[in-house]
Structures are given as C-alpha cells and as structure tokens.
Amino acid sequence: MQLLGIHHVSALTASAERNYQFYTDVIGLRLVKKSVNQDAPDMYHLFYADEIGRPGTDLTFFEMLGIGQTYRGNNSISLTGLRVANDQALAYWVERFNHYDVKHQGIEQQLGRAVVFFDDPEGQRLMLVSDQHNQGIEAGIPWEKGNVPQEYGITGLGPVRLTVPELVPTERVLVNVMGFKHVSSYPAYQDGQPDVEVYQTGAGGTGGEVHIEVRTDLPRERPGRGSVHHVAFRVKDKKTLNQWFERVKGERMPNSGIVDRYYFQALYFREPNGILYELSTDEPGFAVDESVDQLGETLALPPFLEDRRAEIEATIKPLNTKKRSRG
Questions:
Q1: Whose CA is closest to 266, among 299, 244, 296, 290?
Q2: pLDDT per residue over 136-165, tens digit each?
Q3: Which residues of 243-269 are buried (b: 16+ CB within 10 A; e: fewer)?
Q4: Side by side, which strands form the sheet with 264-270?
Q5: Is the pLDDT of residue 326 over 70?
Q6: Which of 5, 14, 100, 280 fits as disulfide partner to 225, beta carbons 3.0 to 4.6 Å?
Q7: How far is 91 from 89, CA to CA, in rounded Å?
C-alpha cells in the first residue's frame, strides 16, 4: 500500500485562455486534456503534463470566472515544484523568465539542489528544481513538440510545500496514516520560524516529497486565483485504492469514498490542518478517449457527461487548443 509519489496538483485560475497561453507558450507543458470540472461542468478543467500525461507530471487548473486574488497564509498548499533534468536547464529557465517578464528569484540552493522560485501571472507559487543529483521516482519526458527545447523541458511535479500553523496534526496523517517518512529539514525562509520538515513517499526524491512549513505568524489563507485546491498522490490501481479507503475510513477521517473520474479513480480526504488530499490511480490515463497525437485538442467529456455536451459547450467559452508551434 505504499504511495508511489505525487500524482497531480490542482489549482484555480480566473481565465482558462490566459492560463493555457502561459503554461503552453511560456512553460512549455503539453495540454493533455481539455475537460470540465465533473462536479461543476460549467467550468473548464485543464490538465498539463509531459508528452503523454504520465502520472506524476500533471498540473491541473479549474477555471473559476471572476475569482478574486489569493490572500496567502496558513492551512494551504503554498508551493508546487516542477522538475527539470539538470542545473543547465535552470540557467535556460532564468533567461526565459527574464525574456517573458516572469517574476522569479534566480537560482538558489535547497537541500543541496539548485532551485528557482517563480510566480505565474496569477500569483501561483512555483519552484523549478534540478534533478542533476536526484535519485528516486522516475521523471517524465517533455513533449518534443512543445515550446521549450526538450532537453530543458519540465519533466514532472517536484516537491509540494504545505504551510500550516502546527506541525503535529499534519505530520501524524502523513506518517501514521499515509506512510511517509521524515528524511530531512532545512532552515525557514522567515526569521524566527521553525525549520521546514521534509517527508517522502515511494522511491523518494523530488517526485515524492512533501515539505511542511510551520508559520506561527500568518492568518488562514483565503484562496483565490493562483491558489492550490488539492494535491493527489499515486496508487497503483483500484484494488489498492480500495485498501486505502478502508484505512482512511478506519481513521475516522471524513472522505469522499471512491470517485470515478474516468481517467483515474480517486479518494479525497482532508487532514486536521485543512489540507485536501486525493489518492489517485495510475490507470487508465488520458489516452482512454483520445489518441496520444491529439491529446487536449478538443473538449473531452467522461461518458457520464456526454449526454450534456450541447449544454456544456453552450455554457463555456470556446478555447482553441490546437497544437502551437515552438516559440
């Protein structure tokens, strides 16, 4: 029942069109699925990933028109990592960010790795991390037709940071319920705050880390555009997910039960500091209803929404997601 690493991270955007332009044109990810929020199908759900949408490479966004800004704070998923192959790739990204006026902090060191902190246009907090000295969970493969040269492209999701007012409640769930192991720590970026504690799952490394930042000086975050809704972790298949459901239920943690998301099966639950976790199966993946060559080009709906296609297409604003040339 060991978790296999990070599966995906889902965040909020106020504009699917501007979000698509940034994450494909500037960041070079591939849109592998253009769909809708299955619980509220009047809004887009966009999935960006590597060449074929491998589990562990998937950054997704729900479009919420008119959503306000994020007021950053506690009880939040406060940073999403993105992996690149090596330190040379980070040098490329610094130049690219300067060219596109992307707010960033230059190359820094964290846990012996080179990293670059940056924000997307809506204030999404992100970090590029070099895998030059990394061992552990295998990375994905950037799309060769993307807007970034393949050797510098994003290879998957990296460490996820949680910001909470107390360590123990979150640590207990990660370690005692979910099987994470404490592996390291590093000094906080704010004076007077506790060290950031590092936990890993699966084969470890950048693709399986959660960093817990304790902040005693912040109010609770008020989510908005650019904030993260949940982080999902990988399980092999539905049989294993059912075992996890029994464990979560046995811990008396409020949960969703098993939810069929068509591209994967999911289980949602919230830990005491308010962080929403999802456990998601690796199967069947994004090619279940589209060819790999045409992923993300048309509006994809799961079978249980297909009879509402006309209604949905009349409600959401058209979004042209045909392949773009390299820029």
A1: 244
A2: 999 999 999 999 999 999 999 999 999 999
A3: ebbebbeeeeeebeebbeebbbbbbbb
A4: 30-37, 40-49, 58-63, 6-13, 228-235, 276-284, 264-270, 255-260
A5: no
A6: 14
A7: 5
Which domains, from first to last, does the chain contain?
6-315 (3.10.180.10)
For residue range 271-314, what is the model confidence (pLDDT) as tens digits? 999 999 999 999 999 999 999 999 999 999 999 999 999 999 99
Sheet arrangement for strand 209-214: 104-110, 113-119, 125-130, 76-84, 156-164, 209-214, 196-200, 181-186
HSE-up of residue 107 (Cα within 13 Å, Cβ side): 14
